[in-house]
Amino acid sequence: MPLPPNTTPVPLPIFFPAMSPADPTSTQASAPTSTPLPGHIEEKEARGPGDKIASSANGDSSPSTEEFPQPHLRLHLNDLTDDGTSIFLSSISPSTLLPYAVSRVQKALYVHPTRGYHIPSTRSVTLIVRPMNGVAYTTGIDLDPEQHKEIHLSSRYVASISPDRRGHEIEGVIVHELVHCYQYNGHGHAPGGLMEGIADWVRLGADLAPPHWRKGDEIKGKWDAGYQHTAYFLQYLEDRFGEGTVRRLNEGLRTSKYEEKSFWTGIIGRPIEQLWDDYKEQASEGEGGES
Ligand SMILES: [Zn+2]
Region (Disordered) spans which residues (predicted)? Predict the structure, then answer.
């Protein structure tokens, strides 16, 4: 099925018997931020009883009450008689899951609403559950594609997920698609594989990887094969060059048109070919240590 422009389809995964635990969604979504607060003054003389250490030692009572801008969230169920629609409704709680997933994506890519990088002003996200081929894709609506997004999720796909994985898988797909609502694209010139890799890197970091993902398969292909293949490579870069590396890449995709050589050497200091070779070398060396 041809997709409209600006869409980002997800490939149909192959499912294996479920091995992962149930939906790990916890109640910590509303924590304002886990990053240190720049400019925060540590209490140094807080050893004696009665000292006011608690007020500034934990972030809860810090003056910052800033929150990420919340998009208007909408849900369309296009066919209530469809099996997948019923399964969707019985597997997740959209009014809880959608804001939580938005929050996860915002924190993964931007850390903090004002002290991190420049977050796109996405004003609305509409999740449309409908019978269609494929898994899901994200698009911008014609009138204002930058600020108003639609995520189309296939109810047929939802019906095909093994019952014990439904909540986890639906959440994983939604997180992936929400990344497309909040990421930059190098002024339209970033490789699709990098865009999909960042989306699955966030999904990976959210502990929502499906059981068919296999770290190590990607070294046989190209760095921008996309999806989990590129996601594992991005995690390697994050581990090697420090937390925030993928956020810097996303920021680089905001500030200038993607041009491969200057992009990678400018942000990481090495060309992509060298980084990919290093990764493959490290991954093949590590093979013996993993079961
Ligand atoms: Zn995608």
Answer: 1-69
**Does an H or E element contain 101, and which?**
helix 94-110
3-state secondary structure of 171: helix
CA of 234 to the centre of ligand 1 (A): 15
DSSP 3: P
The alpha carbon of 88 and the centre of ligand 1 are apart by a number of angstroms equal to 20
The answer to whether the beta carbons of residues 43 and 52 sit under 8 Å apart is: yes
Q: 139 by DSSP, 3-state: which? A: strand
> For 236-271, what is each residue's pLDDT tens digit?
999 999 999 999 999 999 999 999 999 999 999 999
* CA 250 – ligand 1 centroid, Å: 15
> Which residues of the chain carry a pLDDT beneath 50?
1-3, 14-63, 288-291
Query: Contact 118/251 with Cβ under 8 angstroms?
Result: yes
DSSP-derived 3-state class of residue 151: strand
